Each structure stands twice: as C-alpha cells, then as structure tokens.
Amino acid sequence: MKKLILALIMTFICTGLLKSQSINLQKEKSKQWTMENCVKKFSWEDTVQTKAGYQYWFFDRDFLDGRTIKLSVVAPNSATHSPHKHSEDEFFFVLEGTAEFYLEGETAIGEKYSAFYCPSNLKHGIRNIGDTELKYLVIKKYETK
C-alpha cells in the first residue's frame, strides 16, 4: 500500500513538472524571434550601480526561461560581494583584468579569457586583485516558478 501511495505521489509530482516544462516550451515556441529581440547592445543608461562598480544585464531572467547573461565591472582591488552560495550554478568569463576566483576555501587567479564554473550550493566568489577594472560575464540560469 505504501508503495502504491508513493508511486501515485511521484506520478503527480512528475506530471506537474512535465506540464510546467511543456508550458515554458510552448511560450518559447510561440515567441516571435527577430533580430530586434535577439540582439542586445550595451547601453550606459541601463547599467546598475554596485558597491564596487556596475553591472549590465544583456538578457535578464525574464527573457528566456531564467537564462541570463550579465556583464559585471569591478573597481581595482574590490569585490561586488563576499563569497556566497545559491541553488543555481553559474559561469564567470573574464574579459579584462585580473580576477581571484574562490571556491570552497581555495583560490585561483584568472586573467583575460579565463573561465570559472561555480557549482550549485558551493561557496564561491570572484574579486578584482588587479590595478585596472575587472570585466567579466556571468552566465546563469535562474530557477523559474
């Protein structure tokens, strides 16, 4: 009996998840993709100030199923925030400057064209250890509701 109840609960959960994914796919398929909404050019007007510089969302979490690309710019010898963790994984890709990557107590140096993968639920961070601005992309998929 317990196995039957568990099977019914799992079926209910899986059906709900599949239905949610199906709705998201239908929204994506019904969206009209054009050069106008597929190309995003940097705009100073849309930058967001941070305590150590600024950020610019090329594609925010509302654009497509939670997938995002953000430019972060950090002043010399600074960090936007301290190491942290969250449920989503993410990638950092250094465009300019010198970064110190942090992952669960270990550090590594990354320079231009270096990439850093931050697995979900592991304490991670990035900071500028150079004398010039650090510019990097953050590529992440936020959980959708």
Describe the structure concisely.
By secondary structure, the chain is α+β, with helices and mostly antiparallel strands. The chain has helices at 2-30, 35-38; strands at 48-50, 53-64, 67-74, 90-96, 99-103, 106-110, 115-118, 124-128, 134-141.
Give a verbal description of the structure:
The chain is an alpha+beta fold. β5 and β6 form a beta hairpin. The protein folds into 2 domains: 2-31; 37-141, Jelly Rolls (Sandwich). It has 2 helices and 9 strands; from the N terminus they run ααβββββββββ. The strands form 2 sheets. It has a 6-stranded antiparallel sheet, with no helix packed on it. Strands 6-5-8 form a 3-stranded antiparallel sheet, with no helix packed on it.
CATH homologous superfamily heading of the largest domain: Jelly Rolls
Specify the number of helices: 2
Secondary structural class: alpha+beta
CATH class of the largest domain: Mainly Beta
Query: Beta-strand percentage?
Result: 35-45%
Task: Detail the poorly predicted runs.
Answer: 1-14
Oligomer: single chain
- Count the beta strands: 9
CATH topology of the largest domain: Jelly Rolls
Count up the domains. Answer: 2
Sheet of most strands: 6 strands, antiparallel
Percentage of residues in helical conformation: 10-25%
CATH architecture of the largest domain: Sandwich
Shape: globular
Keywords:
single chain, 145 residues, alpha+beta, Jelly Rolls, 2 domains, six-stranded antiparallel beta sheet, 2 helices, globular
How does the SSE layout of this entry go?
Elements: H1 2-30, H2 35-38, E1 48-50, E2 53-64, E3 67-74, E4 90-96, E5 99-103, E6 106-110, E7 115-118, E8 124-128, E9 134-141
Antiparallel strand pairs: 1-2, 2-3, 3-9, 4-7, 4-9, 5-6, 5-8
